[in-house]
Amino acid sequence: MFYLILGLPWLVVVTRFLAVLPWLLSVKILIASLLLVASQHLVINRISSGSVFAPEYPRPLIILFNLLFGTTVLLAIFQIALDVFSLVVMLGVGRFPTIPPEVRYAIGTAALAISASGVIQAIRVPPVKNVEIDISGLPTEFDGYRLLQLTDLHLSRLFPAGWARAVVVRSNALEVDLIAITGDFIDGGLENRREDVAPLAELRARDGVYAIPGNHEYFFDYDAWMKHDAGLGIGMLTNAHAVIERGGAQIVIAGVTDHAAVRSKFPAPDIAKALKGAPDGAPVILLDHQPRMARQRAKSGIALQLSGHTHGGMVIGLDRLVARANDGFVSGWYDVDGMRLYVNNGTALWPGFAIRLGRPSELTVFTLRVKHEAVRNFRRP
Fold first, then answer.
1. Helices (H), ranges, the chain
2. What is the pLDDT of residues 243-277, one digit of tens each?
3. Pairing between strand 363-370 and 146-150?
4. In this structure, are strands 339-343 and 332-336 parallel, antiparallel, or unpaired?
5. What CATH superfamily is the domain 128-379?
6. Domain boundaries, the chain
């Protein structure tokens, strides 16, 4: 049924766009066949690797499939809009208007151009996004502390070793105090992704690199990936925490396993366990891949939660549907019962839908600032 739904835009394009164009039948059949294959590229993913999430065929072909699939979806939307407009005209003049081929050429060109822009935005090495955040109870020793969040790397044939290396170079050039990776390192098994994740061993920050698993780690031999990521020098905070010190002052970096673990044999997310033994009074920065449990996390006295998972919704409009699946949290800042939540658009995204329109990828650098409560109280109505 899922694959049938993915084929519906193709059906609209074939019956309402291609069929009425003044082209040779052989040309129409060729284009329709190519678009049909692209519309079912997740089936090809499954055939190539046993998983819709991990295409194991050449990167240019993955890019082409995403380009054509995006074009098909956009063209179907444009064609439906054209048909609705034609129906409105028919109500006024009494007959369905004749649409010149040039109109369909224009909307076809627009769909292709927009899709190409979306794919380019999706697969690029992200730009740096700088954000300042004031935190209640932050010791003055940590004022100006800089933390880089990477998330949803989805290292794969689409985001291979070369792309990962470029992300590492850009990240290291920022010279931050700490790097946090909030899950979904990979798409694929260890035997296929070993070289692609290898550049992550070169990540450098003054206080180290810490990470948590995302839901995709559970799709591809969770235990093997946790051990391998730790072997790269990454501190895996699976229901655990680390204490960062500056001149006797402390903050806590805590992490929980992903919500996907609830349906597996692996440890479910446990905020109490993650914070057990943490120093009293130290502000807690929580790494939690999915933002959906933010309201519950706020009850634990978390100062700042960093999440990913949503990819920002990928496309404006589609982000509203993604938000509904994540308790309303999809992109950017939220104030959740006194806890600050940041939902990152992602460093990359999964290869099955590699399109971004209005929801850009990001390398996010947070600069922590002491919250001046007196100023805050003065502004409160």
1. 2-13, 25-39, 41-49, 59-93, 101-123, 161-173, 190-197, 222-231, 271-275, 294-298, 318-324, 373-379
2. 999 999 999 999 999 999 998 999 999 999 999 99
3. antiparallel
4. antiparallel
5. Metallo-dependent phosphatases (3.60.21.10)
6. 2-123, 128-379
